[in-house]
Amino acid sequence: LTTARYYTPSGRSIQAVGIEPDILVKQAKIETIDQPARQREADLRGRLDNGGANGDGKDKPAKKKKDDVKGTGKSDPGAKQALKKAAKEDYQLQRALDLLRGLSLFSQKIASGKP
After folding, report:
1. 11, 19, 15: which is closest to 2 by C-alpha?
2. Given phi > 0 = left and psi -120 to 50 = alpha, else beta, which region is 2?
3. Is there a contact between 15 and 8 (Cβ–Cβ < 8 Å)?
4. What is the pLDDT of residues 89-106, one digit of tens each?
5. What gap in Å lies between CA 28 and CA 31, rounded to an integer?
6. Residue 24 pLDDT more than 70?
7. Which residues, in sequence order, are CB contacts of 21 under 8 Å at separation 6+?
8. How far apart are CA 39 and CA 92, in angstroms?
9. What is the largest CA-CA distance in the chain?
10. Tens digit of pLDDT for each residue in 2-14?
């Protein structure tokens, strides 16, 4: 149940029609460039053997962290990670956040009086 009217900064009502961006930023085309195979240390003759992370030649499996925080009153770290991942995939959101960060830095620079 909607109890108020919502408007965009340009004054357009979004009731029953939703919202479309005032400024549409087209997604950049990212092209991968074939890179020649790089030589790694492991490819060199006479290289030193790592011997495993713990020194006995065997890597230990990573310790599992307990993600269950129900009933503690703390926010769910898994939900935060999922939100960050989704935000990374949203091109429009990323460009908007870039703009806001830039405006914040510009405002700080103006407030400090530095040109």
Report:
1. 15
2. beta
3. no
4. 888 888 888 888 899 888
5. 10
6. yes
7. 92
8. 38
9. 74
10. 678 888 888 888 8
* Host H or E run for residue 105: helix 91-112
Which pTM value belongs to this model? 0.33
In this predicted model, what pLDDT tens digit does every residue of 60-100 receive, in sequence order?
A: 665 655 554 455 556 667 777 877 787 788 888 888 888 88
- Range list of H helices, 13-73: none
Nearest to 91 by CA among 19, 20, 24: 24
Quote the CA–CA distance of 17 and 4 in Å, as a whole number.
15
Structure tokens at 77: 């770290």
Q: Which of left, alpha, beta for 57 (phi over 0: left; psi -120 to 50: alpha)?
A: left
